[in-house]
Predict the structure of HMG box domain-containing protein.
Amino acid sequence: MFRTSRFCLDGVRKWAFKLFKSEQIESNASLDQLSTIQKKKVLTRMFKQLPKEDLQKLYTRAPAFQAASESSGAATKRGKEITPYEYFVRNQQSNPAIAALSNPRDRETKLLEIYNSLPDAAKEALEENAKEFNRAANTPQKRVVVKIPAKRKIQKKKKAAKKKAVAKKKVVAKPKKGAGKKKKVKKAATGYALFVKSEMALIQDMPQPEKMKEVGRRWKLLSEEEKKKSR
């Protein structure tokens, strides 16, 4: 008997801590700057330092929080089904009376108050809406495949082939490197050029300008017949 009671107490305490942690993470901005390990240490210390009155309130609310968490996890496993209350909460997010409350605990309390005060007819309507929502969410969407008639397929192939042929015509082959360039024809050396070459080899002791003058002078002294022979 003692073991069972101790086990239940530990379970309630665990879920009370989870509830406390969830609310603190959502409402306490100073925790955002901490790492996951630091955050856990700080929250554990804060939880242990809670007054008995606040701790008792958490213990009282823990079973409902556990049921909601487990039901949410089970819903996810079986296809993300939601309860009428969850459907109600979804539709109350735009309610100014709910949106104005920054504290998650206050929001939860207000939502429960509104839901519990609803007439039976409204709750039944929520139940039907939740069922419809789950049915639509869990119905697999079939892919719509449009069959193309045989004639249209042939026409599409012809159009594709035509486009391909036009594209090929537009492609212009790049000219090869050097194509179109005329080869330079080496001109035959003139008699004067040959004379200059041979004479320059003989004159070694004069500067270049003087050499040219001397070669020119010697060329002029040659007779026409000698000039022709040098070609």
User: Anything to note?
Assistant: Confidence is low (pLDDT under 50) at residues 1-8, 141-146.
